[in-house]
Amino acid sequence: MINSLDTSSKKQKVIVMIPAYNEEATIGKVIRDVPRKVNGIAEVEVMVMDDYSGDKTAEVAKRAGADYIFKQKQNVGLGVNFKKGIDMALKLGADIIVNIDGDGQFDSKDIENLVRPILRHEADMVTCSRFLNPNMTKNMPWLKKWGNRRFTNLISRITKEKFTDTQCGFRAYGREAALRLTLKGKFTYTQEVFIDLIEKGMRIKEIPLKVVYHKKRDSKISGNLRKYGFKSLGIIAKATRDTKPLDFFGMPALVILFLGMIGGGVSFVYWLIYHATTPVRTLFNVSVFFMIFGLALGILALIADMMKTIKTTQDEILYRLKRQDVENSEILNKLNGGIERVDNHIRKTNGGKLGEDVRVRRSVR
Length: 365
Prior knowledge:
Elements: E1 12-20, H1 27-32, E2 41-50, H2 57-64, E3 68-71, H3 78-91, E4 96-99, H4 111-119, E5 125-129, H5 142-159, E6 171-174, H6 175-180, H7 190-199, E7 204-208, H8 225-243, H9 245-274, H10 281-336, E8 339-342, E9 345-348, E10 361-362
Parallel strand pairs: 1-2, 1-4, 2-3, 5-7
Antiparallel strand pairs: 3-10, 4-6, 5-6, 8-9
Helix pairs in contact: 5-7, 5-8, 7-8, 8-9, 9-10
């Protein structure tokens, strides 16, 4: 049987995905600058994921030449919008999915540099780093620079890999990495992707690419840094809990149990020497609580580790289902030619319904 996902012997298809929210002022230039001819790539298409913008983002994108436009029925957040975009790009036959912001901070012409390591089989995901070259962060606000480094150090410790920039949204995903992604965060996805893919054995490579910072322009995600920080930490904590439960629960359990044993030991020695508990009674009670809590947390760590085994099996099943779905979509497209969305249904261009509710529409150029 021929594996339709084997792209080693054919030129590949790239879909440039642009998650957008109220980006009418900049998205047109981002789309027009996307290189439509790239060495080693047979086809480059642009797909805009409009997160229920209140402006003319979709109209501007269509005029600029976007091949696909997907408009959410409500504002679902960057994380959800990104996940839906990945699924949609895979069903549209993407071998490589490039994600670029619609605010014009990144140069669309750098897409060729971003996909090159994937074409050379050097990486499964390639991400732009703004810190590999210090000259590229001269105009970055110091608070954003400080926050980025703190988050990057945290992700590096969790994954046990050395990264320099885990917040950048300019990335390229090979098909295998895109199929393997299992994300839970609704607010953002940038840090969670690293934890998820590293846990699944995917190779991530960083390359330095230029970025422009507009002084009068706030990020849609990190404009409120306190909100961004707390929500991102929550997503990171959940991802770490699911992928490294022994570290997440086990290390605190050992520390708490150790403190309880020290306090209990001191109380016991005091009682042996002075035959009294009056000065250390509170210490003893707290120590007993710590030991009980530490043991309970240790048991929870073991249970969570068993749950991780179940999650790993579920992720593998999900991966196989997604892979089969992509294969079927590709075969269907080859057999029936183009597709279009009519009345919330995908149908063949010759008029027959395919039955699946995939909300994509092809722009008319």
